[in-house]
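Lecture notes, unit on protein representations.

Consider one protein chain, 187 amino acids long.
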Amino acid sequence: MKALVRKGSENKLQKGAIPVIANAFDASTFQDEIPANAIFVQLLGVPHPGPKKKEFFKSIDLASALASGSAAKYAGVSHFIYVSVAQTNTKIMKDYQECRAAGEAAINESGLSATFIRPWYVIGPNHYWPLLFQPIFKILEFIPKTSQKAKALKLVYLKQMLNALTFAVENPATSIRIIEIDEIRKF
């Protein structure tokens, strides 16, 4: 397994991973390192997304997705896996949703077979605070006016995300497959 990293991050890789030191925003710096028919998993994004990070979503999330899609197309990968975000049709984190949707659109337009995994918020180490709101979301699901939005903002656990990613790797899509929150929660 190869992993794209920036210089100085090689030691953070899982044991056995082969580092590819390159610029994640410039496909030409890593496209020749991708084996033909490989499965490409795109995970790069802004840490701790928040409403004030609009420009980072464009310059990091979207830019890296575009570069990765281009490099994957050039290399002839067999399957592209993109961790996107739930498309909630709400104003909450609208800029983030738009950038991730644009990344999906570019990958889709490239003609690559791809899986888009769309969580809203992933509960994991040091990220448990949203659990405080879970009872409120449950109640809001039963109110017709708020039901759709509450369901769109369901939380998923890190283990569920890892299982969804594993499923996507082990069961490559032959066109475009979207794994939404409810499906992620089943893993």
